[in-house]
Design a protein that fits this description.
about 250 residues; alpha/beta; six-stranded parallel sheet; 6 strands; binds farnesyl diphosphate
């Protein structure tokens, strides 16, 4: 007997627009960019911040509403302490330098991932950037910092279980209900996930949220990424047909 599976309560039913609302990016290749120029890896990360600035601006210009970037993974702690500290410093410097401008431009900043373990001054600045931009809705910048998708899903499962035990939550677990426990609650799933540097991996980024994202891999190192690449990404996205497991209309 063939039994109908319970349909996902998160998958859209109708046709999808040609432009992505939400683009997520794995900004990869800073180290190789620097090494190929005989520069320290940290120089690649510095240029990576410039590419991030360009991309945030370009995304706003191109009508994208949500941009989520992978800046520091839970696995990046394996890097030398000097590089880890430098990445913390870059996040801090980015927020310090850009917060006022982003706030004035209507950008809402969110930082997803684990706060525990971040230096107190970085955690404080992250908190400030979120609080000061909470009422903004024009553009949404989400920075995944000290983030790992398996860790996020595990934390969500633990919180859900705690709420069921406390009687706050029904035992019936739905996709939409579970999603509220993820760091990304309130943010639509990414329509498009881009990775730079020619690697073909998701690397523990948005594993739940990217279930139906279109994937694009660019053979360009992150510090060289810019508006032209994002425009190309949107063109390639528009050529994709998103079926969410269904068949194309008119298919035999
Ligand atoms: C991957 O390149 C990049 C990272 C691990 C860090 C990404 C960080 C930035 C773009 C700048 C920081 C921005 C903020 C807001 C903190 P890689 O070092 O893995 O490069 P490789 O694969 O060539 O070694």
């Amino acid at each position: 007997m063939v039994r109908a599976a319970v349909p996902s309560d998160l998958v859209p039913a109708g046709p999808q627009p040609a432009a992505p609302r939400h683009v997520a990016i794995i900004m990869d290749g800073n180290g190789r960019w620097a090494t190929s120029r005989s520069l320290p890896r940290t120089a690649g990360h510095e240029r990576g911040v410039e590419a991030l600035r360009r991309t945030v601006e370009a995304a706003g210009d191109l009508g994208i509403e949500y941009l989520t970037v992978f800046s520091f993974s839970t696995e990046n702690w394996r890097r030398p302490a000097s590089e880890v500290n430098m990445l913390f410093g870059l996040l801090k410097a980015y927020v310090q330098r850009d917060l006022a401008r982003l706030k004035n431009e209507g950008v809402r900043i969110r930082v997803i991932g684990v706060r525990d373990g971040l230096p107190p001054d970085v955690a404080e600045l992250v908190q400030k950037s979120e609080a000061e931009t909470r009422e903004n809705h024009k553009f949404n910048l989400t920075i995944a910092f000290n983030y790992g998708a398996r860790d996020e899903i595990l934390r969500a499962a633990q919180a859900y279980a705690r709420d069921v035990k406390a009687g706050v939550r029904d035992e019936q677990i739905t996709e939409a209900g579970f999603q509220e426990y993820l760091d990304t609650h309130g943010i639509p799933d990414p329509d498009l996930l881009i990775r730079t540097s020619g690697e073909f991996r998701i690397s523990n980024f948005l594993l739940w949220q990217a279930a139906y994202s279109e994937l694009l891999f660019f053979d360009v190192l992150w510090p060289d990424f810019g508006k032209a690449h994002l425009e190309e990404a949107l063109r390639r996205y528009a050529e994709r047909e998103r079926r969410y497991g269904a068949v194309a209309p008119g298919a035999g």
